[in-house]
Input
Amino acid sequence: MEKHPIKIFSGTATEYLTRKIVKYLGVELGGSSVTQFSDGEFEPRFDVSVRGCDVYIVQSTFSPADNLLELLLMVDAAKRASAWQVTAVIPYFGFARQDRKDKSRVSIGAKLMANLLTAAGVGRVITMDLHAGQIQGFFDVPVDHLYASSIFVPYLRNLQIPDLLIAAPDMGGTKRAKSYAKFLDADIAICHKTRTQVNVVDSMEIIGDVAHKNVIIVDDMIDTAGTIVMAANLVMEKGAKSVRALSTHAVCSGEAFKRIEESAIQELIITDTIFHAKVPSKITILSCAEFLADCIKKVYENTSISSNFIMI
Output
């Protein structure tokens, strides 16, 4: 059966990453533009034909509102222009923290976002390190949920850190920490935190012995950096030899970079799912472009992507 031509486009928030992806794939970045109106309304447009094409639109949804809306409009435009199929490549999926009703009278925002993307015409979603894995089930289309451990684990192995211990910054990250510990043959500890309001950690305790260990705290995202910094400082107080941290999505809002720079963290390892023009010297950025490009290629060629998963 003849393949549909592949065309890859970028939302305005993720062009820096999409250009790397198309370079690995050996294809050209599809031309698109956005018309801005004086009242804040905007209108994305494809500058080339997508009729009968297998279209991939790359866009992280941070800051979530405008970038998500732009992605929805681009998907709708592609479907109305007779694209054969539209795949949304969402390196960072915003609103993922709203995966359940954890208090009265709140929205399940992640489910609403899934509904909107499906209604717009998305035929498939490729994303990385969802804040809650069950969000895959919110979609009625195939979801390829990739793990940045495929990027982080080889880097950490190359560091050849002795007396290694993997720590979870909260109870929710225990499964992730156990997976990293398994692949790195390391011990594990868990930080238990309590908070009374969003983005504010009141107290934290460590479950496990971190004394005389080189600790790596693993997390899926860093927002204000309050949790990761408190955890790092605490493990050093408990006798750790050093502390590093890694996070797939560096949201890093507010004073996050300042907190990281002033903390006990020796190195923070992140990916480029979210763009930052300038980062502190402590931060190492590993690109996810080649990883995403390989997944796109395998999806397009209808081959298995199971080899792309280190952590399952």
In short: The mean pLDDT is 92.
